[in-house]
């Protein structure tokens, strides 16, 4: 993904859009149009956090794919029960 984004930066057209709030975070919309590595024209929009510069959403041009991101969300991991199963011997 990093190489695709770098290709868009190097060879694409990036247009600044409006500010939005997504999950309480202010982000700026950017519309990207670029040739893919396979030579096909493509475009998508992404909302980048104004303070942390992290992506909040990425959506393709025809709105059939929308990916949302949440960052630094608290995670709770419960330790699984690793005791051996009980055996029922006659």
Q: Estimate the helix proportion, in percent.
A: 10-25%
Q: Point out poorly predicted stretches.
A: none
The neighbouring-strand order within the major sheet is: 1-2-3-4-5
How far apart lie the N and C ends? 58 Å
Order of helices and strands: HEEEEE
Estimate the strand proportion: 35-45%
| Number of distinct beta strands | 5
Largest sheet: 5 strands, antiparallel
Mean of the pLDDT scores? 87
Rg from alpha-carbon coordinates: 21 Å
Structural class: mainly beta
The number of distinct helices, counting runs of at least 4 residues, comes to 1
- Shape verdict: elongated
Q: Secondary structure elements and their pairing?
A:
Layout: H1 2-11, E1 13-22, E2 25-35, E3 41-49, E4 55-60, E5 66-68
Antiparallel strand pairs: 1-2, 2-3, 3-4, 4-5
């Amino acid at each position: 993904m990093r190489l695709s984004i770098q290709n868009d930066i190097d060879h694409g057209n990036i247009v600044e859009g409006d500010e939005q709030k997504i999950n309480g975070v202010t982000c700026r919309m950017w519309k990207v149009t670029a040739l893919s590595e396979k030579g096909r024209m493509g475009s998508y929009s992404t909302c980048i956090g104004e303070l942390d510069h992290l992506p909040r959403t990425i959506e393709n041009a025809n709105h059939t794919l929308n990916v949302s991101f949440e960052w630094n969300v608290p995670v709770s991991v419960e330790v699984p029960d690793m005791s051996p199963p009980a055996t029922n011997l006659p």
